[in-house]
Amino acid sequence: MLALSQVAPQIDSSEVDALADRYGQPIWRRHFIETDAYLRAYRGQSDPDRRGEVVFAIRQHNGEILLHTKHRYETPIYRLPTGRIERGESVEDALYREVAEETGQKVELRRFLGMLDCHFVNQGTSVPFVSYIFYLESLSKELRPTDTEEIAGFRTVPPQELGAVAHSLRNLRSKRRTWGYWRSLAHDIVYRALDCCEQT
């Protein structure tokens, strides 16, 4: 039996309910992921200062979704921006703070798309980590990230290409292979959610 970490991030059900009431019921997924050395060092340990992350799909003025890449990647890997939720910080406050830091854009929150409840497994123990996934609309055209030491560049893709982005992440062959699989899961949720939105 897996021993769940006692200091792992907690999901506040009342906060989730309030977000769902305001921005729509999210798709919810739980995954157990066997960690490799890289993912174990990167995310497979409890962080007392973090209670999860926000993932943001921002629709740009051209109708496409913003992706970014970071300086530390060995080759350009474009994915949806993400950012930490600090202990004591609300999910919504973290979302707007991270959007400002990583893009510099003014945005309007449109939908609460999903929750990704991942458990990083290593030798019979599991560290849970939650991702809150949102769809936003940009109210400004320019990109002016304040976190320029991290952010290396941007590109946009049509919503229907997010499935291909997820596929690319799942097929990374570097040390980021398992990390890429984990990152692909949020892209799958956004792809499915936006596809459903477009059909209604």
Measured distance between first and last alpha carbons: 42 Å
Shape, principal axes of CA atoms: globular
Order of helices and strands: EHEHEEEHEEEHH
Mean pLDDT: 89
Number of strands: 8
Largest sheet: 6 strands, mixed
Task: Tally the helices.
Answer: 5
Determine the strand fraction and express it as a percent band: 25-35%
Q: Could you estimate the helical fraction of the residues in percent?
A: 25-40%
Tell me the Rg in angstroms. 16 Å
What does this structure look like?
This protein is α/β, with parallel strands linked by helices. Helix content is 31%, strand content 34%. The protein contains five helices and eight strands. The strands form two sheets. Strands 1, 2, 3, 5, 6 and 7 form a six-stranded mixed sheet that branches. The chain has a two-stranded antiparallel sheet with strand order 4-8. Strand 6 (107-122) and strand 7 (125-138) form a beta hairpin. The longest helix has 23 residues, at 177-199. The radius of gyration is 16 Å and the shape is globular. Mean pLDDT is 89; it is low at 1-9.
How does the SSE layout of this entry go?
Layout: E1 3-4, H1 13-23, E2 27-34, H2 37-42, E3 50-59, E4 65-70, E5 82-86, H3 91-103, E6 107-122, E7 125-138, E8 151-157, H4 162-170, H5 177-199
Parallel strand pairs: 1-7, 2-6, 3-7
Antiparallel strand pairs: 3-5, 4-8, 6-7
Helix pairs in contact: 4-5
Give a quick precis of the structure:
This protein has 200 residues and is an alpha/beta fold.
How would you describe this structure in keywords?
single chain; 200 residues; alpha/beta; 6-stranded mixed beta sheet; two-stranded antiparallel ribbon; 5 helices; 31% helix; globular; disordered N terminus
